[in-house]
Fold this sequence. Notes:
Blueprint: H1 2-25, E1 30-31, H2 34-40, E2 58-64, H3 69-84, E3 89-95, H4 100-105, E4 113-117, E5 124-127, H5 132-143
Parallel strand pairs: 1-3, 2-3
Antiparallel strand pairs: 2-4, 4-5
Amino acid sequence: MKKSIIFAFLLLMTGFGAMAQEKNNESKVQHITYQDFIDKIWDFEKNPNEFVFKGKTAAIIDFYADWCGPCRKVGPIMEKLAQEYDGRLSVYKVNVDKEKDLASAFRVQSIPMVLFVPLEGQPMMQVGALPETEYRKVVEERLLK
């Protein structure tokens, strides 16, 4: 009896794992590297004193780490925003442990750190986790105005 319950549990969990993996494959959030940032967002090596945005839509860049509790709370919010504003807003993630040069270039000392990039004007930086309503407010009032 115990073996069949364990087997059923494992089968159920495997199914949930596959669904979660499928969901991750549908993610609109893009993980980016140092070079991706230079290519897609801003070539700060070429234009260190002037922000020249290369994107076609406003953007959010979430600097995070896998071990960071507040970052794990922000992650699902970024997924929701990326899905909801698909085509009007690009959402990127930068793993500060893997992209140390990019984190250093932005002087990331505390995470999560979120960079909000409007199509026109200067980017805005927010350190620390915010409630979903606050991220939505920034998107609506500052990025998609």
